[in-house]
Design brief:
Order of helices and strands: EEEEHEEEHEHEHEHEHHE
Helix content: 25-40%
Number of strands: 12
Amino acid sequence: MASFASAPGTGTIRTGDGTITVNPTQPYSGLVILMHGLGDSAEGFADVAEMWARSAPHIKFILPTAPTRPVTLNGGFPMPSWYDIVGLSERSNENCEGIEASRDTVVKIMEEENKQGLAYDRMMLSGFSQGGAMSLFTGLQLPAEKKIAGVLAMSGYLAGAKQFTLSDAGKTTPVLHCHGTVDPMVQFPMAQKTEAMLKEAGIENYELKTYNIQHTVIPEELAYALEFIKRNLPPDESCAVKEKDVDDMSVKELKAAIMKGGLGKQAVGLVEK
């Protein structure tokens, strides 16, 4: 059984599995999946998603939380992680146990949205650090029928090189890679190697945008990222997902509709079994 909670006066819904959904204030015609970094959760970027949503009310944001697993880099201590990290060197990032399973989780979210009527080319993958790596790994390997609108990686890198193959669709998928030049965690040379590797593989639209920051994000970067999102997912009513009849809604969908109507208190206690 999953319980639901939401922020007062917003369309933000939290489910028991750690997923946060920031619902738009109008029928949505775009989706951004935003993934957190190592040891964090969806909560770490919930405020960013809500800020972006206020400027892009036609976009729905979904923030999943990674499964908790032992992380070799941190002495085997269990923490939310999209895949195991053995070390920070280029060689140690060739094999990332769990990355393919996490990719499948992300693709499943996309498939569920597609079933609701949203085209894949109206979706975007984004993330910070390990979440940025997931965005690159997942978004740039998709087949033509699931080609997305773009990939946004903040302080990320290309992980799982041995399991990665740039697809034909990935070659023409727009990528914005924001990175700090003094990042002590995911050091800037890793970003440069990611860019070089992908360009050598044939990617056509890859921007590496630098900032004089460490392993973090800043307002200037988030504003630039938002412009990338809005440019590649502009409003398009012809692509908007039409709301279902109440009788056809799941509890999660019903609660979202109630929240949009400004009747959040009426949704208290709703559960999905």
